[in-house]
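To whoever is on call:

I kicked off a structure prediction for a single chain this morning and the downstream step that reads the tokens threw a length-mismatch warning. I double-checked the sequence; it's 635 residues and nothing unusual in it as far as I can see. Pasting both halves so you can look.
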Amino acid sequence: MRAVTRLAALLALVLTALVSPAAPSSAAALSAASAACVPDPATPKRQFRAMWISSVANIDWPSRTGLSVSAQQTEFRSWLDLAVQKRMNAVVVQVRPTADALWPSPYEPWSQWLTGTQGGNPGYDPLAFMVAEAHARNLEFHAWFNPYRVANHDDPSRLVASHPARKNPGWRFAYGGKLYYNPGIPTVRDFIEDAIMDAVTRYDVDGVHLDDYFYPYPVSGQAIPDSATFAQYGGGFSNVADWRRDNVNLLVRELDERIHAAKAHVAFGVSPFGIWRNAATDPLGSRTSGLQSYDSIYADSRRWVKQGWVDYLTPQLYWHIGHAAADYAVLTAWWSEVVRGTGVQLYAGQAAYRTGVSGQDPAWQDPAELSDHLRVNRAHPEMLGDVYFSAKDVRADRLGGFSRVVADHYSRPALIPPRGTAGAPPAPTITSVTQGPGGTTVSWQGTGAASYAVYRGEAADPCLVTDARNLLGTTRGTSFTDPSSGQGTYHVTALSRTHQESGSFSVVVDGPSASSAWGTSAYSAQRHGADYRFAAPVAASDPAWFPAAVPATGSYLVEVWHPADPGYNSATPYIVSAAGGARTVLLDQRTGGGQWRSLGTFTLNAGTYNVVGVSRWTSATGYVVADAVRVSASP
């Protein structure tokens, strides 16, 4: 025993002198390298990209009523495939267009836009199907609800007999040829919230989204018929306008509370009309001269932001750059100032429906107009993404306008901006990198993650995971196939449900660099990958080295994989090139094969160098084996 101890000590001294990592970076040098990274504004790492998919009046989906289940599902998959093709990462789907439902709701009838008959069962659960299909493509699914609209006509007898608005005539009013729920009745507000929360609690939606239809848009010569309601419920308000705004505020505030109480990760967002108030009316307003949603539809969207009642806002900025009454550039700057410092995320609602359409302003005949909007956005760090109205206009790509957007701004995928302050999941660990006819497949293991991001690049690149130039894609699975043949090291990070990203990495090196004295074998079924190396013990230094690219100086878990056999070595020396000097760990290779075995956690310097070696210098008998090494950022 004493002789073995002396040999191990001598071995450690010799190996400390032999191991010299290739230009390890100090913490200061690493910090300087990170600071040197200048992200490309055309490839932002974080950007919300989505399109609205409208069901009302069959604008987008289903394309018409009465389609078979198979046809409806095929159509919807094609919309999701379009979103993926355009490198979007979310869809906003209208699931309650006219006080009805695209799911089996206990509160409201099946939507007429599915079968052509309100209350008609479509033969499947569209919402469950849509959420599953979106998540299969790692697209966020934001369920879009119109809160107050009952019908695009004003004849209650045309509603199905079981419709709550027909059974409770006091809940509704007619205005401008349409039917609406009365926002001033507390029972109605509770009912609307309950109907929305049914979808939230029963389905795995990522977001709840309200559009801009609150109180009806004004119709010339008509007054909203709610004077009796104001008389009954408006105590404490000196005028009907403030009362109406409070009714809408209560809906927004209460929905925010109920959604997050049920599922903290679900985002709550609103897409208000693009003008809150004009500066001529209110010094806090924008330098515009259009309809004021605060006064006309009683939507105090600025207050929702300042009170934190929403997670995100998507104002409908449907005007061109330079518009006389509502300049896109002016409104973008104004909304950016509104959300600054609040924690509320800002996305721009974009008018894809205007591009190349006759009768629109000449600016919309320029295929670069939409693309120029996103260039304007770059001047405002608060502007975190865009949502396009609507899906059919994205697909139409008139004048090539949307193709221009993709070419100029969506050349790489992007992660959704993180929401909230939750922690990131643990880093995944890469288990294999294999070549196949379809490309290189990277596989990994992870826990607690909702999805993963896959990068490929050189470890020395300070922008490795800073912008999207190295981002290959995202997935909810645990493998990813890279069809390209680019060079570099693969890195995989884990993302939470609210898109916090693990700030670490894991890499597997399958097969070492070794001298000719090391043989190659594929005999053991416990091997990692195609083969492994083996050699007889010798009283000399002849290690098999596993090089790896360590992205940053820090704490890392080092694990090894080897096949086991009773004839293998009982004290195989593993050398870890730790910061401050090599560390040696002896491992019994006679048992414990075919799995990852921990050597321990070590501080490693940044850089690309021989991180782990398997030495032949041991007094024990039996082959020493070098198969695979895994280096992971320590949790």
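Update from on-call: the warning came from a stale cache, not from the record. Cleared it. Sanity check on the structure: Confidence is low (pLDDT under 50) at residues 1-35.
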